[in-house]
Specification:
By secondary structure, the chain is of the alpha/beta class. The chain has two domains: 127 residues, 3-Layer(aba) Sandwich (Rossmann fold), CATH 3.40.50.720; 178 residues, 3-Layer(aba) Sandwich (Rossmann fold). Helix 1 links the parallel strand 1 and strand 2. Helix 1 packs parallel to helix 12 and helix 8 runs parallel beside helix 9. The longest helix has 21 residues. The protein starts with 7 loop residues before the first strand and ends in a 17-residue tail after the last helix. The protein binds 2-keto-D-gluconic acid.
């Protein structure tokens, strides 16, 4: 077996520097700002056996690298990587589960409270000097007291959010593509049914063709006029036009959003909604957690070439073996 030091790895996008450093300590690394075949060094495509990516990797790029064995994605969500295509071609894809679970769940709770109790608006009020000039910030219509929380997507992060919600003394129910074994929370057979049964909906759903615009006008209507919607999963799962409309018309009370369909572009209609608390996709964005994610990206590539197996393969490529 050739020395792993001779393996050429393509680092794509603005990957965390700690991951780049660890890859450079172990492999021959080339950097590309994005996965665009025309930007590959001429006659070099056959050399690359691995991609470490923060950003999109499509089927055409996978096809442009004939000796590609593994794509290590920075992030638990890997909707930007064509994992189905990779799986069919025998290319391993890995993601970064577990290491970000608690951080993202913390952020979801922060967003929920911000949206419900208007904390960012209250802080702006203080900073604008209005506490002194106008008196106390108005009492908030929203409260977590008495709420029923529904979670869309009961994976690792959904469960971590549910544990936190339980500690708040609120009931939890969920919708997921299938019932989750060993979970006692009430299961609903559709997102619409879940939205009708709760007044607080937290989406942790991944971006897939099945979840595209799943949170639509009907779901928001079912959530109702006291409804709070929080999205910490993927923006593609929401019909953003319908959401802005629901926020403006009072179909729901408020929303807290960390993710958007076309980041970093946030629809003007949502920016105009005073009852939306908006964050620039910071769910996992602490130095601690991003470093752990960077370590896992590097570890997947190191383990693949060193031991012949990936640490955290995604489901579409679990069957892929290294041939070593
Ligand atoms: C990403 C995320 O890592 O893990 C995910 O799926 O959404 C984030 O934690 C982030 O998009 C990377 O830039």
């Amino acid at each position: 077996m050739a020395d792993i030091q001779d393996v050429h790895v393509l680092v794509v996008g603005n990957l965390h520097e700690h991951a780049v450093k660890r890859l450079e300590e172990n492999f021959q690394v080339t950097r590309l700002s994005k996965a665009d075949a025309s930007a590959l060094p001429p006659d070099d495509a056959q050399n690359f056996r691995a991609i470490a990516a923060s950003g999109a990797v499509d089927a055409a790029f996978i096809d442009a690298l004939p000796n590609l064995e593994i794509i290590a994605n920075f992030g638990v969500g890997y909707d930007a990587v064509d994992a189905g295509h990779a799986g069919k071609k025998g290319v391993m894809v890995t993601n970064t589960p577990d290491v970000l679970t608690e951080e993202v769940a913390d952020t979801a709770i922060g967003l929920l409270i911000n949206a419900t109790r208007e904390l960012p608006k209250a802080e702006n009020y203080l900073r604008a000097g209005k506490w002194k000039s106008d008196g106390a910030y108005p009492l908030t219509r929203g409260s977590l007291r008495g709420r029923k929380v529904g979670i869309f997507g009961m994976g690792r992060i959904g469960l971590a959010i549910a544990r936190r919600i339980e500690a708040f003394g609120l009931p939890v129910s969920y919708f997921n593509r299938s019932r989750v074994d060993g979970v006692s929370y009430e299961y609903h057979g559709s997102l619409l049914e879940l939205a009708g049964a709760v007044d607080t909906l937290i989406s942790v759903a991944p971006g897939t063709p099945q979840t595209a615009k799943a949170v639509n006008a009907d779901v928001l209507k079912a959530l109702g006029p006291d409804g709070i919607f929080v999205n910490i999963g993927r923006g593609s799962t929401v019909d953003e036009e319908a959401l802005a409309q629901a926020l403006k018309s009072g179909t729901i009370m408020a929303a807290g959003l960390d993710v958007f369909a076309d980041e970093p572009n946030v629809p003007q209609a949502l920016l105009e909604c005073e009852n939306a608390s908006l964050l620039p996709h910071v769910g996992s964005a602490s130095q601690h957690t991003r470093r752990a994610m960077a370590d896992l990206v590097a570890q997947n590539v190191i383990s693949w070439f060193g031991e012949g197996k990936a640490v955290t393969p995604v489901s579409e490529t679990r069957h892929v073996t290294s041939g070593r």
